Structure formats: structure tokens, C-alpha cells
Amino acid sequence: MTPLRINLEANDIPTHWYNIVADMPNAPLPPLGRDGKPVTPDAMSAIFPGPILEQEMSAQRWIPIPQEVRQIYAQWRPSPLCRALRLEQSLGTPAKIFYKYEGVSPAGSHKPNSAVPQAYYNKLAGTKRLTTETGAGQWGSSIAYAGQMFGLPVRVYMVKVSYQQKPFRRSMMQTWGAEVFASPTDRTQAGRTALAADPESPGSLGLAISEAVEEAAADPGVCYTLGSVLNHVLLHQTVIGLEAKKQLEKVGLYPDVIIGPCGGGSSFGGIAFPFLSDKIAGDKRAEKLRCVAVEPTSCPTLTKGAYAYDFGDVSGYTPIMKMYTLGHDFMPPGIHAGGLRYHGDSPLVSQLVHEKLLEALAVPQVATFAAGVDFARAEGIIPAPESCHAIRAVIDEALRCKATGEPKTILFNLTGHGHFDMGSFDRYLSGQLEDYEYPVEAIRASLKHLPQVG
Amino acid sequence: MTPLRINLEANDIPTHWYNIVADMPNAPLPPLGRDGKPVTPDAMSAIFPGPILEQEMSAQRWIPIPQEVRQIYAQWRPSPLCRALRLEQSLGTPAKIFYKYEGVSPAGSHKPNSAVPQAYYNKLAGTKRLTTETGAGQWGSSIAYAGQMFGLPVRVYMVKVSYQQKPFRRSMMQTWGAEVFASPTDRTQAGRTALAADPESPGSLGLAISEAVEEAAADPGVCYTLGSVLNHVLLHQTVIGLEAKKQLEKVGLYPDVIIGPCGGGSSFGGIAFPFLSDKIAGDKRAEKLRCVAVEPTSCPTLTKGAYAYDFGDVSGYTPIMKMYTLGHDFMPPGIHAGGLRYHGDSPLVSQLVHEKLLEALAVPQVATFAAGVDFARAEGIIPAPESCHAIRAVIDEALRCKATGEPKTILFNLTGHGHFDMGSFDRYLSGQLEDYEYPVEAIRASLKHLPQVG
């Protein structure tokens, strides 16, 4: 019988996270404060606990994963690496397609890989409560779960329109004991200001961030958590790539191409960095390795954004970071159904794309969902819309292999399942989805608002 | 590190299903036709293919699992056996609690264990299309998935009120390529009759069954599929218990108590029978083994029903089967949120309960969801409402162990995840659920309509 899943045992859960900062050809550019100088850990200590800030700034190659975190990881890790044999057969490709399936986590995505250590380090540092923002709820539900695992109360500011339209992710967070507020609330100054301006405000991710940060900054016992973009989040996600490497080794393979969806960049860094390090180190196997970040044409950060210093949030509260950005006041169009809506991208991923060690690709929405449905019908798993972006690129790559006859090994990141996104599949299946290419002029306009540096 | 998951490899997927019929102290009573005589395979061949009918009637102990089925099973099987260590700790019980987690299947429950072989045998027998009915959609989505795996078109008659209120299970079926109709339809005589009587009819499971059976009976190329109750469905589900046995052996344990939710009985038979056979065979390890089927107090088939011949469907189209039943015109109350709504139960499970080889227990709704939330908060997995019934009984058993100090090994069937049932959790969390004990007088009344035998 062809083995379709390559499993590892609990003891194979990585003992260390891999920090690409140690191996980057050029040191990453630091985030800057309002004074144009690199921000100090002190400046961020009001909202993040010490161990998280240490990891954020660290250049140490291997960072130990605490036993308490590995014990929680063991609930679903090592996640399976699966051979997409039926998809290969349906495409008639000589390529071997493998997917690392992160949808097996309790929250259904890769997000708990970072939510669990973030909750752990906060507990360790004496944090009394966590805050965060969430849009559709994937990160919110992960931190609700992780907080519960360490007995840490969690408050989630959920964009009001999602709170009303996606009640099931909210129920999931509440089942795990989190308090969920429809943002804007009257609990914070930011929320009250927004409500004064528009009592019917549907909210926005930027506003929800402001509320969560404001609560954390105002109370020494409260810390803020973030689900992507920052170095420590990418660090935590490297368990994906480290396990995948071990699993491919079990069947004597090494990837020719690694493909992952990319929004804030954490799952992409997570799967790519442990392999990219081989390429940087001159490992023969990785000589021709390509790592491809896939994003939507309606939010084309890496492919059409500027590589520049910009704020991490819409309101300009955060330090500025050097990254690919569409401008911090960029708003993805309403017709976009597939996640990956962040205006910027992880500074680490951005710099490595800029230095041509990583590639980026944008795919249109309708073809993305079509790929997701093809995958579901071949492999049985209904992928998250985010993951569908990678699948589109994987199928295209496999079809190129069919044309050239190359038996490439393709590894991709199936970051989550689509159980809470069936509404988007419904819109696709009933022909209601459209493609949208974000206009270059609009990007040029929003890039005019980039902050001045130095 | 305490191993929380006991995994098996693809080669450990069982090679044979276990048929309890071979080992029952008394041969099972046959289903009877309208003439009061045992039904022949011929009488059912209009709606079921030959290999399925053979399995339905078989007394052979071990029935080989075709390689093609094992290959599809390998997508998610062997399913993990997990130690509920955090739940044990939160209860302070000396009991060891293990759960077999069937929510890892593509459709999120144990149902594909039977949907896959049913689709396979239909394909083999030359069936051109499958029909079935579905309420909330758990079975419908499983057969949609399984049909897709073998290139077999599937038509699902979905109870109209569920079709309208639970669109996401419908989208899931459509994503897997199935046609889904809101029942009653104007496609069948049964549907047209219902619509003539009430154009706004919300539909019922009984009516949807009639439509699916009618389409299958009218067209030689079309066969009908059923997700529980019948012998062949229980047979297929024994992969659950066979794997669990091997997994417990890996850690040197044998269960003292096996607990599972029970509606039509297929998942319960699936986990219990491979262990019950040891008890029947006089195996020392199984001497004190208890197998407990858990049902809702609002649909208390095994605990308050009569052990009698009754129809399998509401309309009285099917052969009559000897089983625990509340009467085929029983309707579970509208306030019931937790599944397991069938008026009868598997004839095999019923007979073994009647012969005191299996036990049954009914649990009230609010305490059932409370147990589900306790489990979610301890273990991270949000259980299907059906599975919550087992969890209620498990927690009660573990608390008894705490009182007596007995370090029992408890095995339970976590039959699925609750991702498509968050609406019910929402109702629980917001205090809208109530308990409901089905009144004895009402059961007495519906039992008056049992068919006359002989």
C-alpha cells in the first residue's frame, strides 16, 4: 500500500525552534521608533513580556522549546505530512506532491504553534490576562485555546462585522472560555472615539488592534498577543518546516519547490526557513531549492508593494518596520474572500524576498477557489481559503512538470481546514466570486502615506 | 514526555472488519417483510448492491477490507488514540481516560468508515449513482466525500429546514461534487405528495428517506445508502475498535469500561464489538469489561423503548426489525440539539443490550453540553454534540473512580468534532438549552403503533 501519510512520534516534536536571523546573509533591519532610532525592548515591555521580547530580538540559531509547550504541542503534533497521490494522478503529473497538514490542530490551523508558546511565556512572566484582536477569528480562537491551556484569561476584540456575520468562530472562542467583544467597544478610548464618530461602525482590524493594544498598555497585568508578522511568531512556526524535513527524510526525499500561502508571513516562514537554511549553508540538496510565497492579487504585498519602512497597523501606533507594504491605510476590497489581507508582511520574509532568497507570486481569487475545490475532490480535505492560494500555485507547478516531464518534489503548506469558511466556498460554487487585481494607481496612492524615515 | 497520542502506521489499518454475528450467543433475529417472513436479499436488491447485501446477511467472523478501501482509509486512519491527561488532572481522578478520535476524517466524524466501503462496493457492482437522505448533514457529507473518491455521483435529499438553516454542511457536500436537494422536492412522488399537502413543508428525515429510496427503487442504476442501524454499517465501523485495541496494547492496557454515544448504533458497535468478542470468548482481560451506550433523555431508545419489531423509517416502507424502539412515528422534541434522534436502534446493539452484554444510559442535554465544554477546555478539541453524550458518562465514571479510588481504564469514542455544530454550543453557552425527558406516556402512545408480527 502506498503510504499516504508520513507520521512521526511525539518524541520527534522539535526540541528547538529555528531562528533564521542567525543565518541571514545580511542582518535584519531593526524596527524604528518615532524618533527614527531602533526601538528598545523597554519601549515594548508595556505590551509584551520579557521572554517574548528576547525572542523577538534574538540572533541565536536554535531556541529551546519549553517542555510545557511541547506537551501541549503533542496534542496534535507532529502534524502529518501527506502525499497528494490522488491529486497527482488527476493532474497526470510526474511531480510528487506533499502537503504538511496544519489543520489537525484544535483551532484548525497553524496559528496555535505560536499561540501556545505566547500563552506559556506570558504565564511564566506573570501576565494576568491576554488581549488580542481578530477578524474572521482564526488567531482569536487559537489564543483562546492556548490561554485556556495555561489558565490565562483571554479577551478578544473581534471586528464587529465579523462578530455578527461569523458567529461560529466567536462561539468557538467562548467555548474555550475567552471573552469576545464586538469592536468598536466602549471599553477603550479608541473604541469610544470610533463610536462617537459613527455609532453604527462595523469596525476594522486596525481599530480592533488599537483597542487590544490600548487595554494591554493601560494595565501592567495585561499583555497583547499577535498572530503573525513579528520575528518571534515566525520562529515558533518553524516547527512546521523542521518536522516536514524529518518526514521527507523518512522517504528519502528533499523538496525542489516549497510553496505556502503568505499573508503576514508566519506560516510561510515556518515551513520555508528550516530548508532555506540549507540553501544558505551551501547544502548540495538545496542548491536549486525554490521557496514560493503565494498571495492574492487583491492584496499583492510582496509582488506589487514597496520595500519600505511602514507602520504595522492602520492607526500608526506601532514602530515602523522595513517590509513590503501596500501602505498602512490599504484596505482590501470587499469582494475578497480568501484571507491574507494584511497590508504589510513579515520583515524577515520581506528582506529575504528582497534579497532574492525567496520568491513571491500572486494568484487571482476565482482560480484560487477552483484549485481548492480540485484539491478537496481529489484529497478529501476541504482547505482553508488561505491554503487554496498555495494549492493554486502547486497545481500550476505540477502542470509545468507534466509539460517538461520533470519529476519534481513539491512540498506545500496546507495551513488549515476550511470548516469555518464554507460561506466563501458557497459564494465560489454559486458563481458569486469575482477576480480583483488591486490597481497599481491605488497602490501608488496609498504608498504616498508611508512614514518619513530619518 | 507523557505520550498523549498513540499512533499506528498505515500498515496497521485493519485488514478485516470484525463481524459480531459470528460470536453472538444467540443468532440475530432477521428483518421481516410485510408477509411476516424473513426478507430475502432479492427483496432488497432494488436499492442495495449485491456485496452490501451479502455483508448485511453474513455470519462470517472476519470480512476482508478491500485494498482500495484501505487506501482511502489511509487518508486519515489509523485514527489517533489519545490520553485525556489534562481532563484526568482537572477531575482529580485516578482513572486513565483514553479517547479514539474519529473527527480526523475528511468529513469530521466516524461516518466515512462506512461511506467509503459503501461507495466502493456500489462502484464495483456497477451502480451509476448513489442517493441518500441527510438531516444536519453528517452522513450526507460523508457519502458525498466517499462517492467523489470513487467517481460516483451522489444525490442527497436534505431535510429542507436543515438545508436552509445549516447551509455549511450543504456547501461541504457540494464542494465534494454532490447534488443536494431540499426535501420535499418535486422530483419524487413522496415529495410531490408532501408538497401538495403543504407547499411550505419544512421536511422531515422520514420524508427525505422516502425520496432517496424512491429514486433508488425506480432506477436500476441508482442505489440507496444508509449511515447507521444496519449490520453492514456496524461491520464497517469495527475499524474503530480494532485499532483502539492495538493502540491500547501498545501501552499495555485493556479497558475496564468502553463508553460511546449511541443513536443508530454504528459507532457504538464499531468501538465495542471488537472488545465484546473477548468477553464472549471468556478472555480473562475482558471478564469485567462494561460497554456503555449513551443516549439523550429526549430520545431514550435503549433505556425507555420497547424491544419489539418496528419499521426502520417513519413511513413504514422498510422491512421490520427487532430492536429497541420508541415507535416509528416518534419525533424528538424541537429543543433537542444534540443529534442521536433516531427512533430505533441497530438490531445487533439492541439484541446485545437485551441480552445484557451491553449497557445503556441516558443523559440530559444541559449536563451533556457542560461535559463537552469541560472536555474542550481541558483537551482543546471541540466535540460533536453526539460525542458529548459519551463525555458526560465518562466524566461521571471518572468521578466515581475518584470516590472509590479505582484506577480504571476508560476508553471512549470521540466520534467527531463540533465545527459544524457551534450553533448548539452557542445556545448552551447563552443559557438557551433546556433539559427534556421524553414522557413515558408519550412513548406508550407511540408504541401503540408498532406493526403486528405474524
TrEMBL record, chains A, B:
Name the coenzymes or cofactors required. pyridoxal 5'-phosphate
Keywords, alphabetical: Amino-acid biosynthesis, Aromatic amino acid biosynthesis, Lyase, Pyridoxal phosphate, Tryptophan biosynthesis
Q: Fetch the PROSITE patterns from UniProt.
A: TRP_SYNTHASE_BETA
Any one of the GO CC terms: cytoplasm
Entries under InterPro entries matching the protein: Trp_synth_b-like, Trp_synth_b_CS, Trp_synth_beta/beta-like, TrpB-like_PALP, TrpB-like_PALP_sf
Query: What is the catalytic activity of this protein?
Result: (1S,2R)-1-C-(indol-3-yl)glycerol 3-phosphate + L-serine = D-glyceraldehyde 3-phosphate + L-tryptophan + H2O
Its annotated pathway reads: Amino-acid biosynthesis; L-tryptophan biosynthesis; L-tryptophan from chorismate: step 5/5
Among Pfam families, the record links this protein to: PALP
Q: What is this protein called?
A: tryptophan synthase
Species whose genome carries this gene: Panacagrimonas perspica
